[in-house]
TrEMBL record:
Pfam families in the cross-refs: Acylphosphatase (PF00708)
Catalytic activity of the protein: an acyl phosphate + H2O = a carboxylate + phosphate + H(+)
Keyword annotations from UniProtKB, A to Z: Hydrolase
Species this chain originates from: Flaviflexus salsibiostraticola
Listed name of the protein: acylphosphatase
Residue positions of the active site: 18, 36
Entries under SUPFAM superfamilies matching the protein: Acylphosphatase/BLUF domain-like (SSF54975)
Amino acid sequence: MRAAEATITGRVQGVGYRFAAVRRARELGLRGWVRNARDGTVRALIIGDDSAVAQMLDWCSSGPPAALVANVHAVERHPSDYADVTDFDLLP
């Protein structure tokens, strides 16, 4: 089990990034959330099997077709800190 908090920079707001991220995360069976940040980035908490988290982080590097991702910075977190997170949600 792995948890990572990612900050995605570039043209990632207003291009359907969060909606596509929710779809992909649910396809991979992940838990967590994705949201827009005030600084123009997208933030995501990704929780699941090691390989699924790695696949999601790889996906974050490109995102949906309209996105232009400059960077993905991921910080490892403790999965046990997020035991109450049961789905992958879109946050405001």
